């Protein structure tokens, strides 16, 4: 049996196991990967073949260079662990279990737990504990709304955690718990703050049953550093590659993440999930053109997709593609307007229109739907900055960094807010945190450099270092080179200023941009070359300045007259000799 067929059979088995235990998000993930495995076109319907061809075109177009060091076929599949589920896992479910599962599907969690109170099978014990956990979570959310409002801070806790921890710990010690029970035990331990034991329990769960993506996701959330990730002792299995690719992304190792996903495409050639993850990595590398193409292809393949589309809206917002963002907002509104992602997309749409109050309303709605949707807090903070409501912006950004201290956008937002409040020392502190987390983003280096230029700090040497880093990080806004030239000129370093003015001029010519920066560069270079007695270069710059109609034209005429005097040693010709 080849590797593709093995993965296919394992995923089919996993979908059934996960669905039977009401782990529907993990089951959905497994089903998406199952469809993403390349199939023989002769054995599939024409529509499915067309879907696969469309996905493949994007995969081929954006294959990363790092993939070349990885085998093009297959993943790091070693061996399938033996599956030891409870004894009745393959038998017909009991009538009581079917009733409990029906209650669960209707979100009647306590009724489901009650009917399973006398069941002793591992499958039934897991579902009873899981329903109690969800009942506790539901009540916690209700208490949060009752006590502080949907967006307020609250000390509400899941009251089922203590009893669940006690029961699951006893089952683990007596070795009467299965991999799903271990997953739930790890989830409970994580919520109680016992992260080290939670990691160990989740690893134990995944070693015995590696197809539960929910367990991988929880384990990833406990690996916030490279050291924590490397300390894991996981069995080799192709699911581990999915985990590592996702973990690399969260640890901002975007190139490594891209290489892993391209490697996985050796088998999962048409996985929409992998395409979306590739787009996320390229978004963080600010490769917006490629991200846009991938998301367009995803929407063609899956027109009712909402997940991950909020990131697509961020790209459209950054590129100011108003019509495309309007179309996307309309599309998700009709598909499912009460999804957090939909609310964020609509919020971005109103933000681009300049309707910041309405934008905030939709970001708040996203948070009412999912209090852990941190992107909404960050985007709402940006809106408050636009509205000059710095105190509200600071509160929004702090909600993010308190939960996820690795979110560079929130640290950057805090820097902006404190800069607006005239507190550059605080702003610099937060900019440093953001640039540490995302050193490849030129905007962060520029923000830090501008902070160093403030009168309260006036550390121009540090500003120059930051602008140099920005210039080496694909400064699409073309700020760094111009600022480097101006700072060197201000410090009396004419040679350095000329170097950066020339580089900036070459960039503007390549991008066919005109404007005051070009005039400033031409004026400086003309004067500098004349002073250096490089008359031919100076004449070229002066001649280009004669095409302008402002005072720079008269300055160019004067420079040309001076150049001719110095070259000939005779009085200059009448100024009317030059074209007007």
Could you spell the SSE succession in H and E letters? HHHHHHHHHHHHHHHHHHHHHHHHHHHHHH
Q: Number of helix segments?
A: 30
**C-alpha Rg (nearest Å):** 30 Å
Quote the beta fraction.
Answer: under 5%
* Class by alpha and beta content: mainly alpha
Based on CA inertia axes, which overall geometry fits?
A: elongated
Indicate the mean pLDDT: 86
* Helix residue percentage: 55-70%
Low-confidence stretches: 59-79, 86-91, 572-578
- This entry's quaternary arrangement is single chain
Kindly, what is the distance between the CA atoms of the first and last residues, rounded to a whole number of angstroms? 82 Å
Please give the largest β-sheet.
none
The total of beta strands comes to: 0
Keywords: Cell cycle, Cell division, Mitosis, Repeat, TPR repeat, Ubl conjugation pathway
Protein name: Cdc23 domain-containing protein
Pfam families: ANAPC8, TPR_16, TPR_8
TPR repeats: 340-373, 374-407, 408-441
Protein model, in words:
- The chain is mostly helical and 580 residues long.
- The chain has helices at residues 3-20, 24-36, 46-61, 95-105, 109-115, 122-148, 161-173, 179-191, 195-208, 213-221, 226-230, 238-250, 254-264, 272-284, 288-301, 309-318, 322-336, 340-352, 356-369, 374-386, 390-403, 408-420, 424-437, 442-452, 460-471, 480-490, 494-510, 516-531, 535-545, 551-568.
- Helix 4 (95-105) packs antiparallel against helix 5 (109-115) and helix 10 (213-221) runs parallel beside helix 12.
- One of its GO terms (cellular component) is anaphase-promoting complex.
- This is Cdc23 domain-containing protein.
- Keywords: Cell cycle, Cell division, Mitosis, Repeat, TPR repeat, Ubl conjugation pathway.
- Residues 7-279 form the Cdc23 domain.
- TPR repeats lie at residues 340-373, 374-407, 408-441.
